Amino acid sequence: MNVFITGAAGYIGGSVAARLLKEGYKVRGLVRTAEQAERVRALGIEPVVGTLEDSDILSHETRLADAVINAASSDHRASVEAMLDALAGSGKPFLHTSGSSVIGDDARGEWKSDKVFAEDTPFDVAPEKAARASLDKLIIDAAQRNVRSVILCNTMIYGTGLGASPNSVQIPPLVAQAQKSGVARYVGKGFNVWSNVHIKDVVELYLLALKKAPAGSFYFVENGEASYADIVASIAKRLKLGAPQPWPVEEAIKEWGFGHAVYSFGSNSRVTATKARKELGWQPTHTSVFDWIENDMQLDAPVVNPR
Ligand SMILES: NC(=O)c1ccc[n+]([C@@H]2O[C@H](COP(=O)([O-])OP(=O)(O)OC[C@H]3O[C@@H](n4cnc5c(N)ncnc54)[C@H](OP(=O)(O)O)[C@@H]3O)[C@@H](O)[C@H]2O)c1
């Protein structure tokens, strides 16, 4: 089977591509630069140099493929429209990478929410997340156009990437901030809780979804949860720093920008992935983000500021 994947040099896309190659799939992957092209080629991915703005490239590659996996962005609407238009009527799979900050609240680290969302739990979408929620709906509705569209709504993914990029988008920036300043910090009081999941379990779910998820389906992806205060305490322990400190959200916004400070690091995002376990037979095995931080996390991999 030939799969076209966007974000092939990234953390999720690169990891999913590596798993697909191991399974015997042929993978063509969108990358932005010649340097990224060389890196992914060395891993066995056939690079396609372009961007999410290049709708002609996306349409062409989508038509060539038996399945498409979108892992470059949870929010880039025009590229999704181009790929869905090219898939319409084909019945082929389109897996999209969304993120559970779409149900995030405005806790700013001050409280733990008691709400745990399943896929069918109704929720009010924050204005900043309206575009993502609307894009997710467009993708689910593509089932009516005979596309086997599937959304994997990931929580906080941890673990070392399996492809060209080792670092995820939440824990590594917290580590980098602590290394830079010598103080491990969480937003507000750090009481807010996020669900989380190891990258090796994530890629198994992408594979299962590619094989058998029904058209128009949406799955949360988690296998545990932790408060930011506990995660940052674990980071401080690993870095041998003093006790973690609260960080006013205004200071965090200066470092990471509003979206990341308030949603990625300051909100609650608690979900359950019972549906993926029941419907697809997903059996995640990694249960402790703390174990990974304290024993396995690489400290020398370059971190891109999430801004
Ligand atoms: N990691 C998580 O825990 C997590 C959880 C939920 C949702 N998400 C979302 O899933 C998406 C992928 O996450 P990730 O962790 O894999 O991020 P990542 O490591 O930054 O990977 C994204 C890849 O896509 C590429 N890309 C981004 N915009 C592009 C564009 N306009 N044209 C071409 N390529 C583009 C990036 O290229 P460059 O390197 O050149 O920028 C990068 O190689 C993001 O939207 C993220 O917010 C991530």
- The percent range for helix content is 25-40%
**Biggest sheet, in brief?**
7 strands, parallel
Number of strands: 12
| Low-confidence blocks of residues | none
What is CATH's topology name? Rossmann fold
What's the domain count? 1
The tally of helices reads 12
Order of helices and strands: EHEHEHEHEHEEHEEHEEHEHHHH
Strand content: 15-25%
Protein structure class:
alpha/beta
CATH architecture: 3-Layer(aba) Sandwich
Biggest sheet, spatial arrangement of strands: 3-2-1-4-5-6-10
Report mean pLDDT, rounded to a whole number: 95
Structure write-up:
- The chain has 307 residues and is α/β, with parallel strands linked by helices.
- It has one domain (2-296): NAD(P)-binding Rossmann-like Domain (Rossmann fold).
- Helices cover 40% and strands 18% of the residues.
- The protein has 12 helices and 12 strands.
- It has helices at 11-22, 34-43, 55-64, 77-87, 130-141, 171-181, 199-212, 228-239, 249-256, 258-264, 274-280, 289-296, and strands spanning 2-6, 26-31, 46-49, 67-70, 93-99, 148-154, 156-158, 185-187, 193-198, 217-221, 225-227, 245-247.
- The strands form 3 sheets. The protein has a 7-stranded parallel β-sheet with strand order 3-2-1-4-5-6-10, with helices on both faces. Strands 7-9-11 form a 3-stranded mixed β-sheet.
- The structure holds NADP nicotinamide-adenine-dinucleotide phosphate.
- NADP nicotinamide-adenine-dinucleotide phosphate is lined by residues 7, 9-13, 30, 32, 51-52, 71-74, 76, 97, 99, 154, 156-157, 165, 168-170.
